[in-house]
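Deliverable D4.2, example record:
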Amino acid sequence: MKKILYTAVLLLTAFTAPAQVISNGIIKYEKRTSLKLQMKNTFSDKPDMLRYIDQVPNTVSSYFTLYFTPRQSLYKFEEHEKLQGMASYFTGSSPANENVVHRNLRHDTITAKKKFYDAEFILKEVPKAHQWKIEEEIREIAGYPCRKAVTTMFDSVVVVAFYTESILPCSGPESISGLPGMILGVAIPRLYTTWFATEVQLKEPPPEVFAYNFKGKVTGSEDMEAMVKKSTKGWGGSWSVYSTWWMKL
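Output generated by the structure prediction step:
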């Protein structure tokens, strides 16, 4: 009964009461990966990798910041959870785990920096359009009522997002977008990873944060994907497929 009442209050607050629309701010995200489960399923046919499972924690976290204005947003890696030994190695060397993504909201273009081990890619492209199915479920994230939406990426990867109409710039973590509001939560079960906002700061970002230097040669996403597949050929398990998904996210 309490759960029903709480949901009703969220719905009433989000969709019937007048609300202040936020267009400038800073959002802190925690990215959490179920590392032990990811390794178990990704390296199912690689006994030499599976022997490290007992040396890693169940989950590991990384932290990102999203700066946004009505014109643009910048999603930027901050730090990894402090870990030791093999846990630190697997977290630090995972593909695309320190991404920086700038989004021009006026022209709907993105510029991104992504790392694949020692290789670094600079991408400039129009974000791919996804067919989102907006559902009735509402949950509160970082103090904001968020509606659930579901889509499929890369033909078969289900992505669950939670967005709020209280923050108008249509942006979110990584390159994920296309919803009528800011995305404060994402879950991708096949990547064993979630992104959830932990804090929303209602202040205008300093202009210099958007002057991020994307230094390097611009690479097309198809060339990047081909390089990742070539580099991981013969690794066994599902790591080649997972690596490609991470880099395209």
